[in-house]
Amino acid sequence: MARFVLTRLSPLPPADCWARLTAWPRHGDRVPFTRVSVVRGTGRQPGDVILARTALGPLRFDDPMELVELVAPMHCLLAKRGRVVRGGAELRIRAVGAGTVGAGSEVGAGTVGAGTVGAGTVGAGSEVGAGSEVGAGTVGAGSEVVWAEELRITGLPRLFDPAVALAGRLVFGRVLDHLLATPPASATG
Length: 189
Known about the structure:
With 189 residues, the chain is an alpha+beta fold. The chain has a domain at 2-24 and 67-99 and 139-181: 2-Layer Sandwich (Alpha-D-Glucose-1,6-Bisphosphate, Chain A, domain 4), CATH 3.30.530. The chain has helices at 14-21, 161-181; strands spanning 2-10, 34-40, 49-56, 59-71, 75-81, 85-96, 142-153. Strands 1-7-6-5-4-3-2 form a 7-stranded antiparallel β-sheet, with helices on one face. The longest helix has 21 residues, at 161-181. It starts with a strand and ends in an 8-residue tail after the last helix. 33% of the residues are buried. Residues 99-138 have low confidence and may be disordered.
């Protein structure tokens, strides 16, 4: 499986980052030839399904993602259940204050890199939110946002995993930067 982890710091509080990251249709704004929509539920609770549909001429595929775990405004686990793209994604947000980024942080050391994203175990026993200031309203605090993915492209040999991971970092890095930089058209919590 191709694995990558993106980490960004934002001056926004966790609730604002959360609203931007879970405005699911906006994820397609920076992924070429792709539209994203919520196809089951509201996109706000476990069991809901988000669909990324990529089409370039006659070539098309769907990437359905089920919300497996959701703890607003700090953690979201998605399982990729498509025929072409398998794996999962985890979004984590934690409040940070001046000079605290990296102090005691477990970014990149959790179970995401161990091959369990989408297996329903990411976050079980992790340090996400444990002792964090999420929701504490710290003046001048921002957020640390972590986007971790594991991708398996059906039919593509594992030899290509490093290239898939690089492409994922580039594409989803653009998506993450866009989501954090621009507010959604309408606030959705």
